[in-house]
Amino acid sequence: MLVDIITIFPQMFQGPFAESLIKRAVDKGLVRINIHNLRDFTHDRHRTVDDSPYGGGPGMVMKPGPIFEAVETIKGEGAADVILLTPAGDRFTQQIARDLAVKGRLTFICGHYEGVDERVREGLITRELSIGDYVMTGGELAAMVVVDAVVRLIPGVLGSAESLTEESFSSGLLEYPQYTRPEAFRGQRVPEVLLSGNHEEVARWRRDQAIRRTFLKRPDLLEKTHLTEQERRLVAGLREG
Ligand code: JFE
Questions:
Q1: Which end of the chain is more exposed for a tag (fewer CB within 10 A), N or C?
Q2: Residues 91 and 173 reside in one and the same domain
Q3: Is residue 147 part of a domain?
Q4: What percent of the chain shows pLDDT beyond 70?
Q5: Does pTM top 0.85 for this prediction?
Q6: 116 and 6, same structural domain?
Q7: Residue with CA nearest ligand 1 atom 21
Q8: Cα–Cα distance between 221 and 202 in angstroms, integer?
């Protein structure tokens, strides 16, 4: 996969993308991430990327010229989905991450100030994404979140154990409680069933815990989850308290 990111703060990406799983994916050649400084696509002495809004009002708006030039220059190497990060976008979900993970090429535009000129939306953008209902100062952190969630789904990026965890997320339930050594920590013991060696009982306990947790924290997820008849009775019991 080829990822292009257009930003006025290219240095922001050095930290997260130079560490951890993303770096491993880049080093393995599974993804290439090119960070482009939007100011390199300006032609004036001050490298201007913003201007005041027509019609008046507070703040500044990203000019269309540099963004169009950046996308058109990058495009030389082939077509891509062009994604704008904005609080007004579709809510980014694991399903959208899966959809994006099969694309050969993604271009992200990171806005700033009060947003981008509407003609960028109309002429360049194929998809608008929001990572949640809160307002950040710009699109960079949102782009990092989306790239991180997408890159880990590219075949070969995750180890086989981690890939299984991804499949368990598709079950539509929250994770069951996890424990590791020691068996007793500050007076709190690991649940006996996990020490039993009975794999069937362990699996049943985990599924039960995942359902309870999901019921308590994210009951909305249970609506879309496939449950057995017995599991449905468990949920009905939880509802009655
Ligand atoms: C930009 C800004 C004024 C936004 C109401 C570009 N999920 C998510 N939260 N915040 C963003 C995305 C985001 C993305 C790009 C951005 C915020 N801002 C700030 C300023 C009004 C805004 O929208 C500028």
A1: C
A2: no
A3: yes
A4: 97
A5: yes
A6: yes
A7: 114
A8: 23
Helices (H) and strands (E) in the chain, counts: 10, 9
Q: Is the same domain home to 147 and 184?
A: no
Atom 18 of ligand 1, nearest CA residue:
138
125 in contact with ligand 1, CB cutoff 6 A = no
115 alpha carbon – ligand 1 mean position (Å) = 7
For residue 227, the one-letter residue type is L
Give the residue from 95, 123, 151 where a domain finishes.
Answer: 151
Q: What is the extent of the structural domain holding 178?
A: 168-240
User: Which residues make Cβ contacts (< 8 Å) with residue 38, sequence separation at least 6?
Assistant: 6, 7, 8, 49, 66, 67, 70
Could you tell me the distance, in angstroms and rounded to a whole number, from the CA of residue 54 to the centre of ligand 1? 19
Q: Is residue 192 part of a domain?
A: yes
Phi/psi at 125 (nearest 5 deg)?
Answer: -80, 130
Protein residue with least CA distance to atom 22, ligand 1: 114
- Does the residue 26 lie in any domain? yes
Q: Is the CB of 166 under 6 A from ligand 1?
A: no
CATH assignment at residue 126: 3.40.1280.10
Say how many Å lie between the CA of residue 83 and the centre of ligand 1. Answer: 14
Would the CB of 214 count as within 6 Å of ligand 1?
A: no
195 shares a domain with 118: no
d(CA 117, CA 41): 16
Ligand 1 neighbourhood includes 114 CB (under 6 angstroms):
yes
Strands 61-62 and 105-109: unpaired
